[in-house]
Amino acid sequence: MIILASSSPRRSELLRNAGVPFRVKPGHVPESPSPGESPLDYCQRLAVDKARAVQPQFPDSFILGADTVVIVDEHLLEKPQSNDDAVRMLRMMTDRSHLVTTGVCLIEPGGKVEDVRSETTEVTFTAMSDAEIRSYVATGEPMDKAGAYGIQGVASRWVKRVDGCFYNVMGLPISLVYRMLRERKAI
Fold this sequence. Notes:
The chain is α/β, with parallel strands linked by helices. It has helices at residues 9-17, 39-54, 83-93, 130-138, 166-170, 174-183, and strands at 2-4, 23-24, 62-72, 75-77, 97-107, 114-125, 159-163. It has a single domain, classed as Maf protein (Alpha-Beta Complex). The chain is 32% helix and 25% strand. α3 (83-93) crosses α4. The longest helix has 16 residues, at 39-54.
């Protein structure tokens, strides 16, 4: 059995659509970067922490943890704390590119082997007016998403280019996860 240590409905949807059998048990951990921690190290650490938080409850199962961050220049954009925060993030991404990185951790039954990897995708947005940004934020869609947007939703109207795994931007690089599960004989 595979346990998904995440409450993200998008991660569940992606695994379900890929035909991967799993059960959800969120791994709740504090989410704040350590001083000097790179965005890559941060999202990989959170993926590991989430998986480890759940592993003792399911010692005979594979545990899958994941965390996604958005990076603009050196700025780490996580889930917005308010509408104003979402507006600020989206303004940073208008008419330019940003990176989306997801850290993934797969813990084998018994907890002795942890496979930690990541996927990074470059996303380019077209220009967004302030009115468009505010209207989008008012939909509520950005509020539970890293970088304050869902590529599969209303924000798709501003996506000019995606270089890399599209599903990574949704929160789970499903091709990478599937390879990891196959390599570890979890499926």
